[in-house]
Amino acid sequence: MDILDWLNNSISGEFIFTMLVSMLPVVELRGGIPFGAAMGLSVPLAALASVIGNMLPIPVLILFTSRVFQWLKRKIPWLNRIIDALERRAESKRSLVEKYRFWGLLILVAIPLPGTGAWTGALVAAVMGMNLKKSLPAIFFGVIVAAIIVSMITLGVIHI
């Protein structure tokens, strides 16, 4: 069986749904992997779907978050408090990323705890004005580390 046959047999509604769940902020792959496993996917397949789903919105977030925030503040003033809160949240993580650069962003994304993850990493990168070329690899490898940790927890290898 080659890779295309394996993918064709593996990509199912559960795989796609797991990807979609993993695209959601806050949930991301921390919820996607256990969700996919509960839907009947193997943990490695749930992790693959979750990594893909978690990473899909990230380039768009890095490239457009600052512009969208500025536009929203001008056009829909009642959103200013929410946007300001999101920007403050990103600023609170800034020192870690500035101090350790690539590794700081990777660690911020890799730790599967509330307030971390790819969406937060993308928000921090956008607020800091980091370009895609520098931020995307750090976020991607952070997502991979988080997927390994969450997969091991889902399999019961790591106990919390």
How is this structure best described in words?
The protein is an all-alpha fold and 160 residues long. It is built from nine helices and no strands. Helix 3 (28-38) packs parallel to helix 9. The chain starts with a helix and ends in a 5-residue tail after the last helix.
List its traits.
160 residues, mainly alpha, 78% helix, globular
List the helices and strands and how they pair.
Blueprint: H1 3-10, H2 13-22, H3 28-38, H4 43-55, H5 58-75, H6 80-100, H7 102-110, H8 118-128, H9 132-155
Q: Give the amount of beta strand, in percent.
A: under 5%
Total number of helices: 9
Give the overall silhouette: globular
Helix % is over 70%
The overall strand count is 0
Along the chain, the helix and strand elements come as HHHHHHHHH
Q: Radius of gyration, Cα only, in angstroms?
A: 17 Å
Our measurement of the CA-to-CA distance between the termini, rounded to an integer number of angstroms, reads 37 Å
How would you briefly describe this protein structure?
The protein has 160 residues and is mainly α. The protein contains nine helices and no strands.
